[in-house]
Amino acid sequence: MQADLLLKNGLVFTPKGIIEADIAVNEEKIVKIAKEPNTPKSEKTIDCRGKIILPGLIDPHVHFRDPGETEKEDFYTGSCAAAAGGITLVADMPNNQPPTSTVNAFKSKVDEARSKAVVDFCLYAGCGSKNISEMVGLAGEGAIAFKTWMYLSSPYSSLLSVRDQEELIQIFTNASRLDMPIAVHAEDAEIIEQATKLLKASSRKDPLAHHESRPASAELKAVRRCLEAAKKTGATLYLLHLTTKDAVEEVKAAKSLGIKVFAETCPHYLLLTEDYILQLGAYAKINPPLRGKDDQEALWRALAEGFIDCVGSDHAPHLKSEKELGQSDIWCAPSGAPNIEVSLPLMLTKVNDGVMTLSRLVELMSTNIAKVFNLYPMRGIVCEGAIGSFTIIDLKVEYKIRADKLYTKARECMLFDGWRVKGRATHTIIRGAVAMEEGVIAGSRGLGRFTPRRLSR
Ligand code: NCD
Ligand code: ZN
Ligand code: ZN
Fold first, then answer.
1. How far is it, in rounded angstroms, from Cα 83 to Cα 106?
2. Which ligand is nearest to the CA of 124?
3. Looking at residue 153, what is its pLDDT?
4. What's the first-to-final CA gap in the chain, in angstroms?
5. How far apart are the CA of 228 and the centre of ligand 1, in A?
6. pLDDT digits (tens, 9 = 90+) for 122-166
7. Taking a C-beta distance cutoff of 8 angstroms, is the pair 30, 382 a contact?
């Protein structure tokens, strides 16, 4: 047998533990996991001595801004950043201009992204009160999940958000019928609007005012409303970027009742607390906002206990000039920070610190996400027959994050510049092809493939 790629002498992360073996990939799939002399010959070989071969990591939550705001990021730069950070597959959010909330917008986004992507990609379909009738068509185009906000200040909010509980239930009902997960940015509109009004009336413009405008109670109320809708409709709920102890408690209770809910958090909520807002100003303006130590500790506990299922970067690039506007008036800056390239090294540092195990990291950044998106076991696991995408890591290398070395266009907005980390991806392999090697992008535009949702029935 001849293979396209042979990963030699690596430590292979398998469901049975880490084993020393070679992996052969042919025609995009893993054809053999074995030791010499049982490994096939190959066109290309990578020596993985001392490195660990993980199933290809997946980032379930990115905003690549393409189409519409490509000055902030585009599918090429965003996916280069993904490859550099060891991410083999991204799921891109629909808050584009125009939003990915109609069949036409969806199709043209697929075409555009296909011509630029260096890593594989899935696309969310936007869902709001004014495009409920598009849901069937969007599912047919292969959207990986629906995405809705419960509060969004955007000219397109009616195509991306629902405020009313009945409408929320209607969307969940449709998602359930279409056998698609529904991902929600869970922060309640009324609570945010009331708090914002009061803060603005007292002339608050400092960075903490934004934080105060989105209290934990807004997340709690929204999470409760979503769980109620999931319970009523049987829909699979994916709660994006959870930040609070209270929300996590609700998820825990819902899981014990058998409600189909999966929870995500992000590296910035695990590593930064609200005091960073004073230091970083508008750069740390993110929705939901950074929280206190108590909430952060609860997130780590939930992560260890399995009540948080996934870690996504919520890679949300913005222009430095826009962020700077917020330094004198926080309401003028957009929310979000660009993290896709540093998620893995930040989380590997926690593995090295003994805060979490490597197995848990793989579940959170690959296996569970593949399960939520119905891509498992073709992805999210290293086994014969699965897709030959891998994240090869060096767990021992220590270095400093340098914002100026990043591939994202939003490198000047990097929150973790100068942080010391231990562990990083040395290779990102996409279906047997090298997308990144030792920090250098080796894949070209178009290597990444559109990955539609596989229907389970
Ligand atoms: C995101 C963005 O900029 O698109 N911003 C953010 O603060 N997280 C939107 C979002 O994830 O809600
Ligand atoms: Zn969000
Ligand atoms: Zn987001």
1. 24
2. 3
3. 87
4. 35
5. 24
6. 999 999 999 999 999 999 999 999 999 999 988 999 999 999 999
7. yes
Show the domains of the chain with their CATH numbers.
Answer: 2-53+383-441 (2.30.40.10), 59-372 (3.20.20.140)
Q: What is the mean pLDDT of residues 385-413?
A: 98
Residue whose pair of structure tokens reads 């020393």 in the numeric block: 20
Tokens standing for 422?
């231990």
Between CA 148 and CA 161 the distance in angstroms is 5
Look at ligand 1, atom 4, and give the residue with the nearest C-alpha.
Answer: 316
Among all bound ligands, the one having the nearest atom to the CA of 153 is 1
- Contact between 91 and 145 under an 8 Å Cβ cutoff? The reply is yes
Instruction: Note the pLDDT of residue 36.
Output: 87
| Phi, then psi, of 350 in degrees rounded to 5 | -70, -30
Q: Which atom of ligand 1 is nearest to the CA of 317?
A: 3
Cα of 239 vs centre of ligand 1, distance in Å, is 14
Q: Give per-residue pLDDT as tens, 265-282.
A: 999 999 999 999 999 999
Q: What is the arithmetic mean of pLDDT over 241-257?
A: 98
Q: CA geometry: angle at 398 spanning 6 and 55, to 5°?
A: 35
Rg of the chain in Å (alpha carbons): 21
CA of 27 from ligand 2 middle (Å) equals 37
Residues having CB closer than 6 A to ligand 1 are 63, 95, 185, 286-287, 314, 316, 334-336
Q: Report which residue type is found at 79.
A: S
> Atom 6, ligand 1: which residue's CA is nearest?
336
**Which atom of ligand 1 lies nearest, measured to the CA of 318?**
3
Beta strands in 127-170 (DSSP E): 145-149
**3-state SS, one letter per residue, for 63-106:** CCCCCCCCCCCCHHHHHHHHHHCCEEEEEECCCCCCCCCCHHHH
Q: How far is the CA of 60 from the centre of ligand 3 (A)?
A: 10
